[in-house]
Specification:
The protein is an alpha/beta fold. The chain contains five helices and five strands, in the order ββαβαβααβα. It has helices at 33-45, 63-77, 90-99, 101-104, 111-122; strands at 9-16, 19-25, 50-57, 82-86, 107-108. α1 (33-45) links the parallel β2 and β3 (50-57). α1 packs parallel to α2. The longest helix has 15 residues, at 63-77. The termini are far apart.
């Protein structure tokens, strides 16, 4: 079995009891998506409802990565919970925008901004929209 050309690193931290911050580094593609999915499933299993996905060190993501993000988004909404993408690289942001994923899954520039959105959801407020550029 060949070793993946671009290994994936996922670091999980818990800024709050029900919030998991997953800092992803490397290519998020068909070769690495299963590992990413296992990290998310583990956090769901442990009762996390809100997922912050830091993609600032992901130079490439294909449809496998997008499908996992959309799947966890659907699962989190049923809890109810949320998924937030943080600081995607320009290449990943372009894919998110072209496919419409960034319309469905909120994109934040920082962990603090994503946590503010989580707090807004807890308070019953509608999620804050991105400002017009």
């Amino acid at each position: 079995m060949p070793i993946a050309q671009n290994p994936l690193s996922v670091e999980v931290t818990l800024p709050r009891e029900d919030v998991a911050l997953l800092t992803v580094e490397g290519y998020l593609d068909v070769d690495t998506a299963t590992e990413f999915q296992h990290h998310l499933a583990n956090q769901l299993h442990h009762g996390r409802r809100h997922f912050l996905l830091d993609l600032s060190a992901v130079p490439f993501m294909d449809s496998s990565g997008m499908n996992i993000i959309l799947r966890v988004y659907q699962e989190a909404r049923e809890l109810p919970g949320s998924v937030h993408i943080i600081s995607p690289t320009s290449a990943v942001r372009r894919i998110l925008d072209l496919t419409g994923v960034s319309i469905t899954v909120p994109v934040s520039e920082s962990v603090d901004e994503a946590l503010e959105r989580v707090d807004g959801m807890r308070d019953g407020a509608a999620p804050r929209e991105d400002p017009e550029i």
